[in-house]
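We now fix the convention by which a protein and its fold are recorded. The integers have meaning only within a learned vocabulary of local backbone shapes. The record below shows the convention in full.
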Amino acid sequence: MFKKVFIIITCLSLVLSLTVIALASNEKQVGKVISMKGEVLIVHKDEAKGIKVKVSDAVYQYDTIQTLKDSRVQILMEDDSLINLGENAKIYLKEYIYTPEENRRSSTLDLLSGKARFIVGKIFTARDSKFQVNTPTSVIGVRDTYFIVWVVSPELTTVITMDGAVVAKNVSETLVCESVVGKNYSCQITSLKCPTTPTIIPTEEMEKILMDTKLSPTPPEREISATIKDSADISKAGVTEKVEVPPPQAPTAPVTVPEPNKDLPTEVGNPNQQPSDNPSQGTIGVPPTNELIPPPKPPH
């Protein structure tokens, strides 16, 4: 009797496993894990529990990827974009449509917690192309860039641009103000407030956040030879096209921007900043500084 019960349970488990695999295979693969450290979980669509991730595992549209304590993961998307998650981070691949024959990519990612580093290696010019990152407080539209998003808490998001530019606005549709965050600048987006005026991020803060999201691809690297792995590669690529994003709203009052300085980067913060009742702060509790930040060291 016990033997028959054991056989039945084994058969049911096998059927369940095959069903889960079949469901996952019906979704579109949009990338794969190329490097990881520690324990990382992935939850496929319509599944209640996560499974442990291994290098070379596929990721699909509608997947949720979560890193645990002292863990990190690097994902290579099919359009050659890279996503690095730091520890205790969670991201939901809400949409990832990639049709290169139409010169189109439509991507929406929900970063629910933690730090994530994004390197968007290709630019698409189709009218409805986009690369967008949502957080509990913000919507971040990408033009051409290498940037970091940190969900500090459900009430606060910090955006840091390493190269290119991003457009950050509050998730609330009642606030029409937005910030254009240029290279080496950062801004904060809190609940029900306009984004802060972008400020230069201090070198020590930049280095710490880069280390928190650093993870090198697992060999063999020839598998990701087409990937743009750091901001230096983005510059070498000669990217000039931009994904179309909504034009910023015209300011209704004078806007304070950084004073011109010959030593500042060519992109000097946010010329399109809307008036805000939220005065500019240092990026992460650090007083603003006019110190020029050297280009970040490329990840290894």
About this structure: The radius of gyration is 21 Å.
